[in-house]
Write a structure and sequence with these properties.
CATH architecture of the largest domain: 3-Layer(aba) Sandwich
Number of helices: 13
Structural class: alpha/beta
Number of strands: 9
Strand content: 15-25%
CATH class of the largest domain: Alpha Beta
CATH topology of the largest domain: Rossmann fold
Shape: globular
Distance between the termini: 17 Å
Strand order of the largest sheet: 5-4-6-7-9-8
Number of domains: 2
Radius of gyration: 21 Å
Length: 300
């Protein structure tokens, strides 16, 4: 919810007469996109007061510890029996997932299509894996198609201003969850924002796999430029060789050259002690299909 339009969560939100916002920041999902002209009650739960605007004017604000507030509210909730509309929505979500996996399995071209990578990653997303996402076109694929049922398993900063966060975030995750496997993912552009932190990962002996989706551009910026100016400018950069870069820091570097190497290479990376960089060239040629679903205001 918040970037790609007309998702199941948006449909649920559209029918709500009461909206409970928890730790909500307007920059993540502008009120004008989900609440413009609506006459419904909003309850604001946060550690700070709401920023009042035309489309976000809560009827009540519960300010303080979010955890304690939710603990106090939970006993007041009553879940009614599931209605036909909810059952139909859940059924459609399940069908969409199966359709995506069927489509992804047929994508065997090189460079690799993002959906094929997502489908392979889904099979590896066991409960003992934490995924940390950088920002970029790839993160929209992760947010739309990769699903998790464990709290704080898939970590994404949706504000679109955090290029370079994945590698240091992954290092932190290995310190907080040393018993888990940690996979951080970035584009090649985002990786270059904090690639020097590989030294930190090597020094700390972080059991970390960092995956780099390579296309040689700031692809999301290019998409924004096409939408706004009908052209691109200043989004291309030179080649990134994650294997040589990793070896220069004393880490391990691996490459994925074909779709049938995705799972085996990632399993090898997880079984290798210390930090591992995994590079994969991706084909963003069909990104237009994804960006057609985007709320224009959410990426400009």
């Amino acid at each position: 919810m918040g970037q790609l339009a007309n998702q199941p969560a948006d449909e649920v939100l559209n029918t709500a007469d009461l909206v409970l916002t928890i730790g909500y920041d307007a920059v993540e999902y502008w009120p004008s996109l989900w609440n413009k002209g609506r006459d419904r009650t909003i309850a604001h739960v946060d550690v700070v007061p709401a920023e009042i605007e035309n489309d976000y004017d809560p009827a009540v604000e519960l300010i303080g510890s979010i955890e304690e507030t939710l603990d106090a509210l939970t006993p007041l909730l009553r879940r009614p029996p599931m209605d036909a509309a909810s059952k139909a929505l859940l059924s459609r979500i399940a069908q969409d997932r199966e359709q995506m996996r069927t489509e992804a399995s047929s994508l065997s071209a090189v460079p690799i299509h993002p959906l094929r990578l997502i489908a392979e990653l889904q099979d590896m997303l066991t409960p003992d894996v934490t995924v940390c996402s950088d920002m970029g076109s790839f993160s929209m694929y992760l947010a739309r198609y990769l699903y998790s049922f464990r709290a704080r398993q898939l970590l994404i900063s949706n504000g679109q201003q955090t290029l370079g966060v994945a590698l240091p975030w992954g290092i932190a995750a290995t310190l907080v969850r040393p018993q888990e496997k940690v996979l951080s993912i970035s584009g090649d552009g985002g990786f270059l924002f904090s690639a020097n932190e590989l030294e930190t990962a090597v020094r700390l002996k972080s059991h970390l796999v960092h995956m780099i989706w390579i296309d040689g551009t700031y692809n999301m910026v290019a998409a924004q430029e096409r939408i706004k100016y009908n052209r691109v400018s200043g989004v291309d950069f030179g080649p990134v060789d994650p294997v040589k870069y990793a070896e220069a820091f004393g880490a391990t570097g691996l490459r994925i050259d074909r779709p049938d190497q995705i799972t085996t290479t990632l399993r090898k990376a997880f079984d290798t002690p210390g930090p591992v960089l995994v590079g994969v060239h991706v084909d963003y040629g069909q990104n237009v299909k994804l960006f057609e679903q985007v709320y224009e205001g959410s990426i400009l």
